[in-house]
Amino acid sequence: MAALRKVTTCLRLLRSSAPVLFTSSKPAVHKAVRWTNIVYTGIASLTVGGGLCAVPFRQVENLSHDSLIKRAASLVTDSSSTFLSQTSLALIDAITEYSKAVHTLIALQKKYLQSLENLTPKEEDTIWQVIIGQRSQISDRQDECKRFESTWVSAVKLCETAAEAAYISGAEHASITMRTNIQVAQSQVENAQKVSLDTDRKLAETKVMEVERVMQYVASSHDNVEEEEVPEAYLRED
C-alpha cells in the first residue's frame, strides 16, 4: 500500500511538472529575443552617439542627429578651450620667467660696469662667471618660450576649427564662446609678449652701454700706462 502511494505521488509530480518543462522553452525564446534587441539597441546607440558620455543610452532614441551633433560640437569646444587655457598659461609663465632672467642679467651687467675700475682680476672673473651663467639661463628660457608658443599656436588653430564646426552644426552659443576665449587668450599673450619685447630692448641698450664703458676703461687704462712710461723714456734720453 505504501509502495502504491509512492508511485501515485511520483505520477502526480511528473504530471504537474510536465507542462512547465514543455512550456518553459517559450519564455526563454522571448528572453533571448528581448536581450538581442537590447544588444542591437546598444550597438546602434554607440554608432549614433560615438561613445559620448554626455548622452545616456536611454535618451539616445529621443534625440535627433542634429541634437547629437550639437552636443558633440559643444564637447569639442569645451575641450579645445581647456587646451587653449593651459597652453596660454604655460606660454605666459614662460615669457614672465624669461623677462625676470633678462632683468637679472641687466642688473648684473650694470653692477659690473659701475664697479669696473675697482674690481680685482679675481672679482671680475667671478662676476663674469655669474653673468655667463645668467646668459645660459636666458637661452634656456628662450627655448622654453619657443616650445610653448608653438603649442599655443596649434591650440589657437584647433579652437578656430572647433568654433567653425560648432557654428556649422548649429551650436551658435558654443561657437561664440569659443571665439571669445580665443580673443581673450590672444590678448593676454600679446600683452606678455610686449613686456618681453620691452625687456629685450633694455637688454640691447645695456649691451651697448657695456661695450662703450669697457672701451672707455681700456682707453683710460692705456693712457695711464703711457703716462707712467713717459718719465722713463725721458730718463733714458738723459
Structural descriptors:
single chain, about 240 residues, mainly alpha, 6 helices, disordered N terminus
Please provide a written account of the structure:
The chain has 238 residues and is mainly alpha-helical. The protein has helices at 2-23, 25-49, 57-60, 65-114, 121-169, 172-237. α4 (65-114) packs antiparallel against α5, α4 (65-114) packs parallel to α6 and α5 (121-169) runs antiparallel to α6. The radius of gyration is 41 Å and the shape is rod-shaped. It starts with a helix and ends with a helix. The model is unreliable at 1-58 and 225-238 (pLDDT under 50).
Number of strands: 0
Please, how many helices? 6
First and last CA, distance: 165 Å
Strand content: under 5%
- Derived from helix and strand composition plus strand pairing, the structural class reads mainly alpha
In terms of per-residue confidence, which ranges show pLDDT below 50 for 5 or more consecutive residues? 1-58, 225-238
Largest sheet composition: none
- Our Rg estimate from Cα atoms comes to 41 Å
Mean pLDDT: 75
Helix content: over 70%
Morphology: rod-shaped
Order of helices and strands: HHHHHH
